[in-house]
Amino acid sequence: MDRLQSSARLMIVSDLDHTMVDHHDEENSSLLRFNALWEAHYRHDSLLVFSTGRSPTLYKQLRKEKPMITPDITIMSVGTEITYGKSMVPDDGWVQVLNQKWDKDIVIEETSKFPELTRQAETEQRPHKVSFYVKKDKAQQVTESLSKILEERGLDVKIIYSGGVDLDILPKGAGKGQALAYLHKKFVTEGKLPVNTLVCGDSGNDAELFSIPGVYGVMVSNAQEELLQWYAENAKDNPKILHASERCASGIIQAIGHFNLGPNQSPRDSPDDEQEPDFENVSPSHEIVNFVLLSEKWRRAEVENSEMFIAALKAVTLPSGFYIHPSGTEHNLKEYVNILRKVHGNKQGTQFRIWVDSVLAEQVGSDTWLVKFDKWESSGEERQGCVVTAILRKDSNWYTWMHVHQTWLEQSGHGEWII
Hints:
Blueprint: E1 11-14, H1 29-41, E2 47-51, H2 56-65, E3 73-76, E4 81-84, E5 89-90, H3 92-98, H4 104-111, E6 118-119, E7 130-133, H5 136-152, E8 157-162, E9 166-171, H6 176-190, E10 197-201, E11 216-219, H7 225-234, E12 241-243, H8 248-258, H9 284-299, H10 307-315, E13 317-324, E14 330-332, H11 333-342, E15 353-363, E16 368-379, E17 382-394, E18 399-408
Parallel strand pairs: 1-2, 1-10, 2-3, 10-11, 11-12, 13-18
Antiparallel strand pairs: 3-4, 4-5, 6-7, 7-9, 8-9, 13-14, 15-16, 16-17, 17-18
Helix pairs in contact: 1-8, 1-9
Organism: Lotus japonicus
Domain Sucrose-phosphatase C-terminal: 284-410
Pfam families: S6PP, S6PP_C
């Protein structure tokens, strides 16, 4: 990635459904824990890759439903599509790799002869992926018969069965593992192979991720039978693969600590009275994450409304600095603190959450930082976001907020945005 001038300290390659995203967690607590950890400690020098069976359509739908941060690389449609950055620029080189010995029309023709196969929605039919549903007791027989027929037709394909119901037919060179191997090869060519790579999954279509040489791997505690069976048969003696005791994103955080890949305490896990903070090692990114979490707790009434708290806020804001609301209204930062005082507990007892995405800090002076990030607020199903540009000054024991400018994100609803 052009964003990093050297090798990433850590590259996390994670499946989404039931791995990074826990669909049984209404509060999205594990995902939000991971988000805070990543933005505070890893975004600036590491790479986040989402590797999903979802098509671009369903991936974008999930992003609207869950508080997800933006990955550097997105691998979709079971490893048949690779895109880069927020704008999701496609990798044309990967398309050329997959075109070899692949003919989607022949695949459609032959699969139509199998009544056991139920075709998935059109959004899931991609240039290099044809997808069906099949009952578990029919999967093996269909896979074996279809593999033989397509080979006789001159195609080189891979058939992946996962989730106890999904059957995907891809070019043989495709798949989550091959997509990761392709990325590793590109990084080697550029002299930027990540220092460490951690792969994360829960189902059968994640198995080949764990087979890439040199990677660390975590199967989350809720991993499905098909992945656990693969592990028992292929990797049970591999010390670089962990079956976590935690679910979904919490299992990923557990693995970071287990393999000593870097910090693994999320800012969301830090009690307010834990201990004196290590100011020397608090980065601008960490400051941003902590401040946003503090404002979330304030509005949920999880922080006591006290004069001492307000005084502490005023101490870290420059009185002559300005704050520009997404609507364009301008206040000085002292007024901003007074506005914050008025909204204490206004989200108490709700599912209100705030999270930040793509926090990137640039040092613009000996003690001054320019920080840009996306800030999101959600309350139930309502969500709105803005782009924030902040100028921070590092003083002896803290950062002082000098200026804050916010503008609406294009895809955001423009509802009530108090602070």
